[in-house]
Amino acid sequence: MLPTPRVLVTAAAEATIDLLRDEHGPLMFHQSGGCCDGSSPMCFAKGEFRVGGSDMWLGQIHGCDFFMSASQFEYWQHTQLTVDVVKGRGASFSLEIPLGIRFLIRSRLFTEQEEQNMAPVYDGEEYLERAPEE
Q1: Which Pfam family, giving just one, matches this sequence (predicted)?
Q2: Backbone angles phi, psi at 70, to 5 degrees
């Protein structure tokens, strides 16, 4: 049985990721938990955002690593996240903003059964230690 993924992605968000990847190369996501749009997932060219021990790697969406601040993860650890995209400009440095759209998170609580088989998470330093050389 496959582990329960912590983060998913909609088809619309995948299409946006493809568009952004064509222009910017490999991508990554980070959700900081700050105020306003700081609590939205932000898309960066891979390596543009430095991760460390205060960040958690939750998995990959459409080939992109997804990180969240450790303090934010404390609140969201029992929740499955789905990255989606909607029309409207966010107030962030995320790569999709010039397109007049923004990524957002939809969420739901894990079931008890899902929580018994969760995908692993790693802090940013652990992730960097395990990541293959590129």
Answers
A1: DUF779
A2: -60, -40
